[in-house]
């Protein structure tokens, strides 16, 4: 079923719902017609209402998909749109799935597609910040390579969302990106180095490390080969993006002096307050069905979050160990020091990784 057919079906349900209400509420109509109107309104309201409820449920939940785009203090994603341009040719096996199961999986992948797409400008913003701070070329190169990874992820997620739902979804606009700069939010206020370190630890090391673990575990449980391959690639790429975040922190510690070190200590205090990704209870599907399609149960998400927080904390504390930090402190420590690759800035090989 193509996008035009789906839109037509939805419109027919809406028309049937409105017409049914009109018949039901008109007291001058015969009793039989009023009953028929009530049945029409009820039958047509169920699929439309279920779809609206599912979209709201997934859009207001806290599923992790790595680095997010933060604008005006809020996470932003592109508007939904119909069309081509943001989907590859991947097609999962939809045989044996009920219409509701296909709708659920379509919305799950549409949610992922929005976040993967938003990660592209998020890495562009990071590249601009690093450029302003005089970062080495390797960091900027890795930022742009990560953005290209996210484009591939988004294309695949849009393709899966379209295949499951039967609707040709694509990425729409992100109006907030064109609204100019705004004062930083309270969470992001303060020194440039502090914002860079905090964002790298929480959105990069933790969130992308968690996304890598979740995708990898989801791949091991997915029964569809296309879904399994997709999650395996995302897991590998997100793990590499988490390493980029550690490289950014190492660069900040080398160049930012005491301010960056204090920011890392403060960011460590915020680790435990990070929310475990929340999987909403979706009527009509159980955890086994979702797991077979690469969506982990809530218990497993909680376990992986605890693992990733512990690993992130251990590695960050290793970076702050006296043996890894200069005895001197403050911005003057690094004045006149040539720019060095963040890969060489601080030895972290002994620390555990997400």
From TrEMBL:
<keyword id="KW-0812">Transmembrane</keyword>
<feature type="transmembrane region" description="Helical">
    <location>
        <begin position="37"/>
        <end position="58"/>
    </location>
</feature>
<keyword id="KW-0472">Membrane</keyword>
<keyword id="KW-1133">Transmembrane helix</keyword>
<dbReference type="InterPro" id="IPR009078">
    <property type="entry name" value="Ferritin-like_SF"/>
</dbReference>
<feature type="transmembrane region" description="Helical">
    <location>
        <begin position="6"/>
        <end position="25"/>
    </location>
</feature>
<feature type="region of interest" description="Disordered">
    <location>
        <begin position="329"/>
        <end position="354"/>
    </location>
</feature>
<protein>
    <recommendedName>
        <fullName>Ferritin-like domain-containing protein</fullName>
    </recommendedName>
</protein>
